[in-house]
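S1.2 Input.
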Amino acid sequence: MSAVPLTPEQTEKLRQKAQQMTGKAVELTVKLDKRVLGGIRLELDGVQLDGTVRSRLETLSHRIENTVL
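S1.3 Output.
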């Protein structure tokens, strides 16, 4: 999932990296979702790899909420 369309070169590099990580042939389906704000989220063999800006902001927000001063 990406906030913006990936170029064919970016898609191919991502596919190759996913194949290296899994050791399997990978077919990518790219979905757009502007809510992610930036970055990408991958799902490989049921495992979610979330490198989106939205996820990072949510993590930061939780840390701030749980900080005791």
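S1.4 Remarks. The CA atoms of residues 50 and 57 lie 12 Å apart.
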